[in-house]
Specification:
TIM Barrel; two-stranded antiparallel sheet; ten-stranded mixed beta sheet; single chain; binds ligand PBG; alpha/beta; 327 residues
């Protein structure tokens, strides 16, 4: 039969399939989210995230060392303080959990790149991402606290700060504060396009950060919208964001692809706790092949245009790259 175009020719062996791959995944672009908490000798599993743990500072280095060994490029630290209050003072305390974690991590495992999540919700007694005025999060007074938090992270050694609160104007407030205090070189990765999502459920259990009333819909985005996400991304680039994050990843890759077209900074994607939990639950039931699903989820995020991928599966993905299963 006369047929000049035969797409299957480029799929006929592993060698040629690998040669013509359009998407390549690099271990240096992987970010692993890590929960640290007060206490001694604590490594407690998060019930809705089997295989993920909260570490006390003395146990944290063992995980960091294993990530560094696997070749994961970066870690994002999340802190779980013992004491919470109305204004989230633990977020910007000099001896706060993240500030101490940074000092120890940088000293003991210096090869990793340390990003810190800048937000109030793990530190406020009401679980919202800023200070309250009545039942609403008061935008402008929150900015000063976020900027103080980012500065305290930079002073403790953070390589990059990542505001995840979704207040208006926070990137500019943080940029100014860092610059005024000698941290002009510290980059900001903004969770610019962050949706109010049920996919964060397991994280809130892990970080004990669920809002005690209401929800986050007055600051996080409505998932029906994409043009609004582009607006958020463009605003944050204008305010000085160095990297723009889209979050969650899996159900929002259309958003990532569009954001990637309009900004000229790298785009990051965060495959969040609910994505992890769904994969684990199905795999533990024997319903899916976990490794192959994890590879597909990762590659599809890069294919959509993200170039930094945050995931609880970072160490596994690094191994899959070594084994030539993806990449
Ligand atoms: C803090 C923050 C959250 C996540 C990252 N930073 C929770 C939230 O916004 O409620 C979620 C990450 C995940 O689900 O893995 N604001």
């Amino acid at each position: 039969m006369e047929m000049i175009q035969r797409p299957r020719r480029l799929r006929s062996s592993e060698a040629i399939r690998k040669m013509v791959r359009e998407t390549r995944v690099d271990k240096a672009s992987l970010v692993y989210p890590l929960f640290v908490k007060e206490g001694i000798d604590v490594k407690e599993e998060i019930p809705s995230m089997p295989g993920q743990y909260r570490y006390s500072l003395d146990r944290m280095p063992e995980k960091l060392a294993s990530l560094a060994d696997a070749g994961v490029g970066s870690v994002m630290l999340f802190g779980i303080p013992d004491v919470k209050d109305e204004v989230g003072s633990g977020a910007y305390a000099e001896d706060g959990i993240i500030q101490r974690a940074l000092l120890k991590a940088k000293r003991e495992v210096p090869d990793l790149f340390y990003i810190t999540d800048v937000c109030m919700c793990e530190y406020t007694s009401h679980g919202h991402c800023g200070v309250l005025h009545g039942h609403d999060v008061d935008n402008d007074p929150t900015l000063e606290l976020l900027a103080r938090t980012a500065l305290s992270h930079a002073q403790a050694g953070s390589d990059m700060v990542a505001p995840s609160d979704m207040m208006d104007g926070r990137v500019l407030a943080i940029r100014r504060k860092l610059d005024e205090n000698g941290f002009a070189k510290t980059p900001i990765m903004s969770y610019a396009v962050k949706y109010a999502s049920a996919f964060y459920g397991p994280f809130r259990e892990a970080a004990d950060s669920a809002p005690s009333f209401g929800d986050r819909k007055t600051y996080q985005m409505d998932y029906h919208n994409v043009r609004e996400g582009i607006r958020e991304a463009l605003l944050d680039v204008e305010e000085g964001a160095d990297i723009i994050m889209v979050k969650p990843a899996m159900s929002f890759l259309d958003v990532a692809a569009k954001v990637r077209e309009v900004v000229n900074v790298p785009v990051a994607g965060y495959s969040v706790s609910g994505e992890y939990a769904m994969v684990k639950a199905a795999a533990m039931n024997g319903w899916i092949d976990e490794d192959r699903i994890v590879c597909e989820m990762a590659v599809s995020a890069y294919r959509a245009g993200i170039s930094v991928y945050e995931t609880y599966f970072a160490e596994e993905i690094a191994r899959f790259i070594d084994e030539g299963r993806i990449g």
